[in-house]
Design goal:
Elements lengths: L7 E2 H7 L8 H7 L4 E2 L2 E2 L6 E2 L4 E4 L2 E4 L2
Antiparallel strand pairs: 1-4, 2-3, 2-5, 5-6
């Protein structure tokens, strides 16, 4: 997925990637420990992602580009 600018927040990225329907759904994924960024469990919706970061959620492996 391509982003404009230097970074995008994790919650915005998951919504744009159609992993969740609405931004509020991100909280459930994060609270359940179901999101990994670059191999580490992430709990912050506002985590800044940069090109090259890898986001893994159940059923999807996504790369920020």
């Amino acid at each position: 997925m391509s982003i404009q600018g230097d970074a995008i927040r994790l919650g915005q990225f998951l919504k744009l990637a159609d992993v969740v329907d609405v931004g509020s759904d991100v909280k459930g994924l994060l609270m359940g420990g179901m999101v990994r960024v670059n191999g580490e469990v992430e709990s912050r919706r506002g985590r800044q992602l940069v090109p090259g970061d890898e986001v893994v959620v159940p059923g999807d492996r996504l790369r920020v580009g």
